Every structure is written in C-alpha cells, then in structure tokens.
C-alpha cells in the first residue's frame, strides 16, 4: 500500500502516566503534539500508581484530543488513519487510549494502527528532522524498559538486549529516593550531578558476562544504597535517606551513580554498533533526556564516525507524535489492525 508523502496520522498515547494526542504529516512533520502529564498526582507516592493513572487518562483524553485537533487545524477528512500505542504499558492506562482510538476509527471510517510504544521511542529522533540513516543501533530507556535494537528500517527492529531486572529509569527513581531528592528521579539526579564529582565514588559498571548486550542495574542501585546507608548490620544501618551526607557528598554520589549508569549504556551501545556495522546511533525514551548520556553518545559517534540522532527533549517523554510518526510507515507498508486490536501490558520489546 502506498500513501501520500504528506498523509496525516492521528496518534494517541496512554501507556503509563502521560495522556497524549498528536497529528503528524508524512511521518515526520509534527502538526500538533499535546501531552497532559500526571507527575503531580504520583509524586507523593514516589512512583506511578496504576489506578490513579488510568482514572487520570479517562478524565484527560477528550480534552487532549480536542486541543490537538484544534492546534493542527486539520479536518477529519484529511486524516488518513488513527494510531494508538497498544503495547507495552499499564493495562488500565493502555485500555483508555485504545478505546478512544477504536471509537474514532469506527466513527470516522479510518484505518486503525496499533503501535509498539518502545519501537516508537526508537523512531522519535526523526520527528521534525531528517530521515534516520539505517541500519542504526537504538537504545531505548523508558519506564521499566531498557532495550537495545538493531534497526534496519523504521518498522524493522531486531532486539539485541533488554532489561534483566531494574531498568535505567527505575534505577534513577530508586537512587533519587535513597538520596531524598524526590520524583521523578532522572531530572533531579541529572540536576544534582551537574555540581558533583563523577569520580568521587567508584560504583560498579554492570556489564554482565562476555559481550552481553542485556542490562542489569539492581546491583548498581544496591551499591548506592550501601554507600549511603551502610551495609546491613554495620553502624550506618537505619540511617534515613541521605541524612548523613553533606550537600556536596550528595551531589558527588548522584554524579558518580549517573556516571556509572551512563558509562554502562555507552559501552553496550559501542559493542552493538561495532558488532552490527551500524551507520547511526539512536537513543530514545525518558532517560534520553539525560544531559550526560546525550554527551556520551555524541562523543561515541564522533569517535567511531557514526551519525548520532537524539530526540528533541519534548519527544523524550511519552508522546503521541512518535506513535503517529511510526504509524505512517506501518500504513505505507499496508499494516493496519481491526477493531479487535487488544492492549498488551507486557511484550518482548
């Protein structure tokens, strides 16, 4: 199936704690991108509460959709298809977006396209930019996922490595809690680390055995916990979140933890790029907003003469523009779904 280069896709995203709608033309030109975040609702709990998230999606989806359509100024007749991120994610949250997309596709008589949320993050650097040079190695760190892919085309991804326990984003949240910095962990640790010494504490780089491309950050998180509160049974056991650290020590721990995590991601990406002969390096997902990671990947690209594609910061968070953008390629390849499309909470991404 061949569609117009300027075909417009409406995308809907509700996989976790952002309700988002977007309209994208030709897979890359973003006409409107509206995101309603739930951070304030979940901050007091130190993480996303699934029931609260799904209720918030239900309350927000209509207004977010209306605002996206208004901003784009696109009549329904010009919309080629309705796309929705239907996997993976929180099942209650997924169902809100999926039902909205099915309703619109049925009412408007448009094709329905289900999109893998993690694959969409790997496509996000193409939004408002030039096409990505393939093959590429893409590292996506979003929520409970840290995944490494060989991307041969926007819709052709081969999983090279994935999370075996704590993902990068989860490690940021847990270490931020240990240090008493708040939630979400990624931005607050990034900020604290800017005035810290990344060599102050020699935290481990969890590379696993051999040339593994899988990720495991539970040991790194535990190393930070023991450094801050002491090993169980030792004199510092029971010390509350970072209360014995000076402000500078706290910043040093944040910087040292971040350096260890970023170094691990960099090494895995280097391994994958050299093994696959990739032309480009891609990062996506919430962790791709981390300033140290962005610098590390840019340096890796320069060192090995690889194109580096980083998403704009507004496309690092969960958003529907990446869903609509990737869906353009799926529709162009003739890939659509029926109204029987299901939400899938867990999938080998």
- The total tally of domains equals 2
Mean pLDDT level:
93
Low-confidence stretches: none
Shape: globular
| Percent of residues in beta strands | 15-25%
Main β-sheet description = 5 strands, mixed
CATH architectural name of the largest domain: 2-Layer Sandwich
Structural class: alpha/beta
Task: Spell the H/E element sequence.
Answer: EEEHHEHEHEEEHHHHEHEH
CATH class of the largest domain: Alpha Beta
What is the count of β-strands? 10
Helical residue percent?
A: 40-55%
CATH superfamily of the largest domain: ATPase, nucleotide binding domain
Amino-to-carboxy terminus distance: 26 Å
Jot down its keywords.
Nucleotidyltransferase, domain 5, 10 strands, alpha/beta, 349 residues, globular, 5-stranded mixed sheet
Describe the structure.
By secondary structure, the chain is α/β, with parallel strands linked by helices. The chain has 2 domains: 8-128 and 315-332, 2-Layer Sandwich (Nucleotidyltransferase, domain 5); 136-311, ATPase, nucleotide binding domain (Nucleotidyltransferase, domain 5), CATH 3.30.420. It contains 10 helices and 10 strands. It has helices at 39-43, 50-72, 91-108, 117-123, 168-178, 185-193, 218-229, 247-276, 291-304, 321-332; strands spanning 8-13, 18-25, 29-37, 79-87, 112-116, 136-142, 145-153, 156-161, 280-284, 307-309. The strands form 2 sheets. A 5-stranded mixed beta sheet has the order 3-2-1-4-5, sandwiched between helices. Strands 8-7-6-9-10 form a 5-stranded mixed beta sheet, with helices on both faces. Strand 6 (136-142) and strand 7 form a beta hairpin. Helix 5 runs parallel beside helix 7, helix 5 packs antiparallel against helix 8 and helix 6 (185-193) crosses helix 8. The longest helix is centred in the C-terminal third of the chain and has 30 residues, at 247-276.
């Amino acid at each position: 199936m061949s569609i117009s280069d300027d075909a417009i896709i409406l995308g809907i995203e509700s996989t976790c704690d952002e309700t988002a709608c977007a309209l994208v033309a030709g897979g890359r030109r973003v006409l409107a991108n509206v995101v309603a975040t739930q951070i304030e609702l979940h901050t007091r709990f130190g993480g996303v509460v699934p029931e609260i998230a799904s209720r918030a999606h239900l309350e927000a989806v209509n207004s977010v959709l209306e605002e996206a359509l208004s901003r784009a100024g696109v009549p329904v007749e010009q919309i080629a298809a309705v796309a929705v991120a239907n996997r993976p994610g929180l099942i209650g949250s997924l169902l809100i977006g999926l039902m909205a997309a099915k309703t619109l596709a049925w009412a408007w008589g448009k094709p329905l396209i289900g999109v893998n949320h993690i694959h969409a993050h790997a496509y996000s650097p193409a939004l408002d930019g030039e096409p990505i040079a393939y093959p590429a190695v893409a590292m996506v760190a979003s929520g409970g996922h840290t995944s490494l892919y060989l991307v041969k085309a926007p819709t052709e991804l081969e999983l090279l490595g994935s999370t075996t326990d704590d993902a990068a984003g989860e490690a940021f949240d847990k270490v931020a809690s240990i240090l008493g910095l708040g939630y979400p962990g990624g931005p607050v640790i990034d900020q604290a680390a800017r005035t810290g010494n990344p060599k102050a504490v020699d935290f481990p780089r969890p590379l696993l055995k051999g040339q593994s491309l899988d990720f495991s950050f539970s040991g790194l998180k535990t190393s930070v916990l023991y450094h801050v509160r002491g090993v169980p049974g030792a004199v510092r056991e029971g010390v509350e979140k970072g209360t014995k650290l000076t402000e500078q020590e706290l910043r040093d721990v944040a910087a040292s933890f971040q350096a260890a995590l970023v170094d691990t991601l960099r090494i895995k990406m280097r391994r994958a790029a050299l093994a696959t002969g990739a032309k480009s390096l891609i990062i996506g997902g919430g962790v791709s907003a981390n300033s140290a990671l962005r610098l590390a990947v840019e340096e890796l690209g320069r060192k090995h003469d690889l194109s580096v594609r980083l998403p704009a910061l507004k496309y690092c968070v969960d958003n529907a523009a990446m869903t609509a953008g990737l869906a353009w390629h799926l529709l162009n390849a003739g890939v659509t779904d029926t109204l029987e499309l299901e939400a899938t909470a867990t999938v080998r991404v």
